[in-house]
UniProtKB/TrEMBL annotation:
<dbReference type="InterPro" id="IPR000157">
    <property type="entry name" value="TIR_dom"/>
</dbReference>
<protein>
    <recommendedName>
        <fullName>TIR domain-containing protein</fullName>
    </recommendedName>
</protein>
<dbReference type="Pfam" id="PF13676">
    <property type="entry name" value="TIR_2"/>
</dbReference>
<feature type="domain" description="TIR">
    <location>
        <begin position="205"/>
        <end position="336"/>
    </location>
</feature>
<dbReference type="GO" id="GO:0007165">
    <property type="term" value="P:signal transduction"/>
</dbReference>
<dbReference type="InterPro" id="IPR035897">
    <property type="entry name" value="Toll_tir_struct_dom_sf"/>
</dbReference>
């Protein structure tokens, strides 16, 4: 059993989710406290079950992270700093899968927890409430300060839950009572600084199309805009180069534009996937597409990025315009079934 110390409620404008701090042993979750995914942290390729680590506690409970790592379900360390295991066979732990956070190759743990939440997006089902559990990552054998890591986790988690990340509850669990009390103070201070308003949404469609692209692919974006303007039903196109006023909170402007656009066109290229901002827009577009009664997301595969598209993207009705085929792009924009 774990004991609740404090929690933060986060609304995306439609659903309220929570981030909760607990005291207790992660390996002693009750069936009522079941976690669909448990996030652990490790040095790259280092899964030795030490006496002080969560990986060690899992090993003593019959789950070898090293064995899971040898047979991963997905490896996203190159882009999101974690890999995801196959479902656990040991049902007694009340944990569905393990996600292992290994950020050292990309940056520091405080810098990359946002990548972790962004990367989890495709593996979470928006149709049911899912629970994710974690310790305060990278504070054990990796030695990062608990206050710093908890602040980074809270900042990233509130950001993503407010943008629709389908986690019903994020459980942050600290095993040591004295340490848990210190972290509760950090969480209380963070909660006191949060605005009381939820993410803005719009009841009307301010734009016909939200155009999501990397600045490196401006030529393709300009072509899309020209073809949309010819249609007559897509005159209002959101282009971040023109639509965001200098000095405004650009992230809030983008969030509102995505929520208030009838359709979303994304231009997929290596530069697009390399951009955290573009990937964030794509995940928000994916969520809108899942929640909508009709397709709203229309990906354009413009330049090959050297690997297979994620399965969920392959299932969306995307247009294959590789490599930089303007003729197919123009034809696609003319036939697109916009609302």
């Amino acid at each position: 059993m774990v004991k609740l110390l404090d929690k933060i409620d986060v609304s995306d404008g439609a659903i309220t989710r929570s981030i909760a701090l607990y005291e207790g042993e992660i390996t002693a979750l009750s069936p009522e406290q079941h976690a669909d995914i448990l996030i652990v942290s490790a040095f790259p390729e280092h899964y030795a079950p030490t006496t002080t680590s969560l990986i060690g506690a899992l090993d003593r409970s019959g789950v070898s992270v090293g064995e899971l790592a040898a047979n991963k379900l997905y490896d996203l360390r190159a882009t999101s700093a974690f890999w995801l295991s196959k479902p656990l066979a040991n049902a007694s732990l009340n944990i569905g899968q393990i996600a292992c956070f290994e950020p050292s190759e990309l940056g520091t743990p405080p810098e990359l927890v946002g990548n972790l939440f962004r990367g989890l997006f495709p593996f979470l089902d928006d149709r049911r409430g899912q629970v994710v559990a974690m310790p305060v990552l990278a504070t054990g054998d990796q030695g990062w300060p608990g206050e710093q890591m908890l602040s980074s986790i809270l900042e990233a988690a509130t950001h993503w839950l407010a943008r629709g990340l389908p986690i019903k509850e994020l459980k942050i669990i600290e095993r040591t009572p004295g340490r848990a009390a210190e972290l509760a103070g950090v969480m209380a201070a963070f909660k006191a600084m949060l605005p009381v308003t939820s993410l803005k949404t719009s009841a009307v469609n301010d734009f016909d199309v939200f155009l999501s692209f990397s600045s490196a692919d401006a030529e393709a974006a300009d072509c899309v805009k020209r073809e949309l303007e010819k249609r007559g039903d897509a005159k209002r196109v959101f282009d971040f180069r023109l639509a965001i006023d200098k000095g405004k909170a650009w992230q809030d402007e983008l969030d509102l534009a995505i929520s208030s656009s009838s359709s979303i066109v994304t231009i997929l290229t290596p530069a697009y996937f390399a951009s955290p901002e573009c990937r964030e827009e794509l995940m928000q577009a994916r969520l809108r597409n899942k929640r909508s009664e009709r397709p709203v997301l229309f990906p354009i595969y413009w330049r090959d990025w050297g690997r297979d598209l994620d399965l969920w993207l392959q299932l969306v009705n995307f247009a294959d315009c590789r490599e930089r085929n303007f003729e197919i792009l123009r034809s696609t924009m003319g036939k697109l079934a916009l609302a």
